[in-house]
Amino acid sequence: MKIGIWPAVALVAFTALVTWGISRPQSASLVPADSGGEILADVGGYQITRQEVEEVAPDQFIQAKQQLHDLTDRALSQAIDQRMMALEAEKEGLEEDSLISREVLTKVPDPTEERIDSVYNVYREQLNEAPRDSVAPQIRDFLQRQASSAAMQVYIAQLRTRYDIRNYLEPTRIEVEAIGPSKGPPDAPITLVEFSDFECPFCVRVLPTLEQVEEAYGDQVRIVYRQFPLNGIHPNAQLAAEASLCADAQGKFWEMHDAIFEVRGKASADELKTIAAELGLDTGVFDGCLDSREFQSRVAEDLEAGRQAGVTGTPALFINGRFLSGAQPFSVVSRVIDDELTRVGG
Q: pLDDT digit string (tens) for 83-106?
């Protein structure tokens, strides 16, 4: 393109970043090294592998790989859009800028004075109480660019229905063992593994999302719960995790799961025992399980598995190995699930 319409619109369209809620521990433990993998160095006959290097700080390497993948995905999406635009312009016998002007910019109405007034009133303090008329041109320009970006996205979505697009970029996947209390059939095409903390406020926020997943996808999704208590900041989380597994031993994990989250995980040993009694568990067996810390090592195993997968906070979701961090809304989770169902032909 000869002038800067596309870059300006693309900049607005592709650089928005959203940080979702997540609880984080004070520090992450290191993962033992493994001798396999690509050899990166040799010291006195000892070979240092890529896997050994990456396991020094697994969460950072995984995050870096995910960031690289996300950057590649955004750049690829922009390249696809630009190529579609070039093909459409060629078909219409127009320069790309002329096509954008005809199909997008000319269809964007000018901001009304009422809309300008509304924005001015909202941002008056940030504008240092500048007179309305002195900043109206800048507000008008901002609103026009905002509307143009939205119109461009609508037009791009229309183009994507007209062209045969095949995206061969594979998503980043992290191997996570799906063991633990679960809902859904073992052979479901989608496995969602959640690492969670019963005292984590963001884990409470993701519960409606997971409920929507169950309702929307039914037997197509298996949900597996794994423990990741952030003991450095949540003093009750460890015991709550163990209590849930004591309940699981009697076939009532999910009932205990829901009950603990109802009290936001802030339950003492006595309160956990009271909950168990209310759920109809064999209290003698449950109390003995909790007092003996029967599942302490099991929780530790989940913690280590999470750390090896790069988990540094909760909730952490792995959808067929695709990592989502924080209290993601259903729209984000369903987009990944739908993409996975398409990939497996579900």
A: 999 999 999 999 999 999 999 999
Residue 306's H or E segment, with its range, is helix 296-308
Tell me yes or no: is domain 1-169 CATH 1.10.4030. yes
Averaged pLDDT, 173-201: 97
Q: Delimit the domains of the chain by residue range.
A: 1-169, 182-344
Measured in whole angstroms, the distance separating CA 13 from the mean position of its chain's CA atoms is 20
Residue 99 in contact with residue 89, Cβ under 8 Å? yes
Count the neighbouring beta carbons within 10 Å of the beta carbon of residue 340: 21
Burial class (CB in 10 A: 0-12, 13-18, 19+), 172: middle
Name the pTM for this structure.
0.71
Tokens 């406020």, located at residue: 201
CA atoms of 15 and 11, how far apart (whole Å): 6
Residues 43/46/49/54 CA torsion (nearest 10 deg): -70
- Helices 96-103 and 5-14: crossing angle in degrees, nearest 10, is 60
The whole-angstrom separation of Cα 212 and Cα 331 is: 10
Rounded-to-integer distance, Cα 159 and Cα 87, Å? 10
| Cα gap 180→302, rounded to integer Å | 9
Q: Which fold has domain 182-344?
A: Glutaredoxin (3.40.30)
Among candidates 132, 87, 95, which has minimal Cα distance to 114?
132
